[in-house]
Every structure is written in C-alpha cells, then in structure tokens.
Amino acid sequence: ITVERFIAVCRPHQYRNISQTMSNTKRVMIYIIPVTILSFALNVPKFLEVTVTEHNGTNEVDPSDTRRDPTYIFWYTLSLIWHPTLTTGILPFIGLVYMNL
Using one digit for the tens of pLDDT, what is the confidence trace for 77-88? Predict the structure, then answer.
C-alpha cells in the first residue's frame, strides 16, 4: 500500500496511467508474488533441517545431517539474528522513510 501511495502522490501522471491500463488484480499480484517468492527463498533452509521417517505406522521427525553440521549451525544462527532484524525492522523503516520524505 505504501508503494502505491508513494506513486500516487509523487508521480500522479504515472499512477493515472498505471491505474487505467492495469487491472486491480494485476497490480495486487505485482506486489504479492515477489513477497511470496522472497519469503519462500528465505525459509528454504528450514525445510532442509529435518527428515521424516515412518516407523510402525507413525511418522518421526529427526534432524538431518545438514542440521547437525557445525558450519550450517553457525551461519543459520547468524541468519536468525540478522534476517528478522533486517526484513521486519531496518529495511521497512528505510523504505517508509524514503517514501515519506
């Protein structure tokens, strides 16, 4: 919504052309699809951390070899510190400041 407002306020002619030539659905998809792809890409390591095995009709979730690797643990722990800080704090703040100045 902030990007849409930024374009509407700072570039009204461009916004008018976009709103007349593009449907609402297409504009929404332009915002949603990159966010979904980025979210999935940032969380791929979480999918690779476990293995699911079946024993006697029940599923067991065990840590994979990747999860036990010390190098992976170091970088994953580091990403747990910086990823949320950047993606939910610093980058949105910078974007809002830029679009509101």
Answer: 888 888 888 888
